Amino acid sequence: MMKKRERGTRKGFSTGANAAAAARAATIGLLSGEIPSEVEALLPNKTRVTFTIHDAKVDKKTAHAMCIKDAGDDPDCTDGAHLTADVCLLEGQAGMVILKGGEGVGTITMRGLGLEVGGPAINPVPRKNIAENVREVAAPLLEKDGIEITISVPQGEEMAKKTLNDRLGIIGGISILGTTGIVNPYSTAAFRASVVQGIEVAANQGQDTVVLTTGGRTEKFVIASLPQLQPACFVQMGDFLGPALDTCAKQGIAHVIIGGMVGKLTKMAQGEVITHANRKAVNTELLAEIAKLCGAPEDVCKEIAEAETARFAAECMEELGLGATFYQALAQRTIETLMERYPNQFGLRVMVCDFAGNLLADVQ
Questions:
Q1: How many distinct structural domains can be found in the chain?
Q2: Is 281 in a helix, a strand, or coil?
Q3: Strand partners, 58
Q4: What is the rounded average pLDDT for all residues in the chain?
């Protein structure tokens, strides 16, 4: 009998970080005529990491390089993906850095993802990070010419079948993701244990408040918003809402604050205790119901119900001038749902932020 692999806490690197490293290596090759076997790339979190480069090819006007994604101890379907960059010279187009999606990178087909419909599924932070890495090494070339970068993932279309991409309107491949460049093993028992431990530490320090966040951006947002709280109060729970709240109740934490964005909060409002994207789709009918209560017309509510993302609902409500009302109502619904599960066990406050870390609602 095969021994079950024990999962740990070894971190990996995102598809975005690997794409940026491949683009950097290919750009070096375009400039020097030789692609390095290793490259030190800048991550979105401003640290630098060395990546191994494979499949190097270069001529006078084009270069090709590839990084193999290592997801660490996270059971990610993109582990082992070949993040490939092809760069070519754009003669006379000084300063231009153009980014395109190639084979295995999804195409956006509907609103609600914050990306251009018809464009590649390369999220804003990886886009910026790829450009930063290219510009760092290509400054002399960019004084008179430009560079076009095409990111591809040869196995991406097959990998995408294991995600909810098609339901989100992303077809033909995976998304290029990553807000820090680091992949934390959110799906592992070890990470779940670290969430529980973090809350226990806060309780042992005599803290009566714990602030739970779903990721790096929301954690940064709440830390900036709640400067009066001690560092031990902030616990990044990832997708483990249920274990986090169970521990808060067990440890007698009096006040729980949840910081989140629309998508994860919708999962909480619909009663999900594990909020991972692949576990269950966002209940857009619930969002349509909330939108109706906020005064949205029937046709918009129907669009929201038939969409696949919470972000689409938010965009629709903002266009109607009902954004603030909608975010307030979503936060309130989240509190009501969670209080049914944890009656009289702690006070609950929900803070909603956008992708840029701006406060959208604060309900308690």
A1: 2
A2: coil
A3: 63
A4: 91
Continuous segment of H or E residues that includes residue 66? strand 62-68
Considering just the CA atoms, what is the radius of gyration of the chain in Å?
22
Q: Determine which of 28-32, 37-41, 237-241, 301-305 has the lowest per-residue pLDDT on average.
A: 237-241
120 and 218 in a single domain? The answer is no
Whether residue 234 sits in one domain with residue 328 = yes
List residues bridging with 62 in a β-sheet.
88
Tell me how long the chain is: 364
Element (H, E) at 286: helix 284-293
Q: Last residue of a domain, which of 166, 183, 200?
A: 183
How would DSSP label each residue in 191-241?
A: HHHHHHHHHHHHHHTT--EEEEESSHHHHHHHHHH-TTS-GGGEEE-TT-H
Domain that holds residue 58: 12-183
Least confident interval from 41-50, 53-62, 108-117, 262-271:
108-117
Same domain for 165 and 203: no
Q: What pLDDT shows up at residue 6? A: 47
Query: What's the mean pLDDT in 175-202?
Result: 81
- The tokens of 134 are what? 């290219």
37: domain CATH number? 3.30.2110.10
Does position 158 have pLDDT exceeding 80, yes or no? yes
The answer to whether residues 130 and 278 belong to one domain is: no
- Considering only 42-46, 214-218, 272-276, 320-324, which range has the smallest mean pLDDT? 272-276
Could you read off the pLDDT of 191-230 as tens digits, one per residue?
Answer: 787 789 889 989 988 999 999 999 888 999 999 999 999 9
**Closest among 202, 257, 212 to 239, alpha carbons compared:** 212
Q: At what angle do helices 15-32 and 124-142 cross, to 10 degrees?
A: 10
Are both 16 and 79 inside the same structural domain?
yes
Same domain, 83 and 111: yes
179 shares a domain with 30: yes
- Kindly tell me if the per-residue pLDDT of 113 is higher than 80: no
Residues 143 and 210 in one domain: no
